Amino acid sequence: MAEAHRRGYREGYDAGRESGAQSSKLKIEWLERRIKDLEGKLDEATRIFEVDGHQVVDVGGYAYRWRGNTPLEVGDRVLLPENYVSRMRSGPGPTVGIVSQLGSTYRGHMSFIVGRAPADSA
Q1: Maximum Cα interatomic distance, the chain, rounded to a whole number of Å
Q2: DSSP run (H or E) holding 122
Q3: Predicted model pTM
Q4: Beta partners for 63?
Q5: How far apart are CA 111 and CA 56, in angstroms?
Q6: Which DSSP helix (H) or strand (E) runs through 85?
Q7: Contact 24, 32 (CB under 8 A)
Q8: Is 107 helix (H, G, I), strand (E, B) or coil?
Q9: With contact defined as beta carbons under 8 Å apart, do 104 and 63 qualify?
Q10: Which of 34, 69, 82, 95 has the fewest CB atoms in 10 Å of its CB?
């Protein structure tokens, strides 16, 4: 009798633990989807595409301004202005980057893109 009681207790305990873990997993997945949805709505509400008449683009996670005549598109290769990090990594002068997004949610100072990169530059 005691063995049956222990077995029943253990089976009930294990079933409850498994049910709780599954419930927690589903709640976490729901919260992750909800966060992603809210981040998308916030991005949509705060994303800027132009500052003072200049196009804003994202290159490598950083926002830049483009004052060229033809708008840039995602995937365009551009020349980025030299900064202290690029000077240490690549030497003096502009570096090549690829436009990853149009617009940005960043509101601070943005450097200007130097120009379009030649097709054969590395």
Answers
A1: 87
A2: none
A3: 0.69
A4: 58
A5: 10
A6: helix 84-90
A7: no
A8: coil
A9: yes
A10: 69
Cβ-count burial 18-37 (b if 16+ within 10 Å, e if not): eeeeeeeeeeeeeeeeeeee
- Residue 52, pLDDT score: 94
Distance between CA atoms of residues 65 and 56, nearest Å? 5
Task: Give tens-digit pLDDT for 52-110.
Answer: 999 999 999 999 999 999 999 999 999 999 988 888 888 898 999 999 999 999 999 99
Q: How many CB atoms lie within 10 A of CB 120?
A: 5
DSSP letter at 113 equals P
17 phi and psi angles, rounded to 5 deg = -65, -45
Q: Which residue do the tokens 């005691």 mark? A: 2
Residue with tokens 């991005």: 43
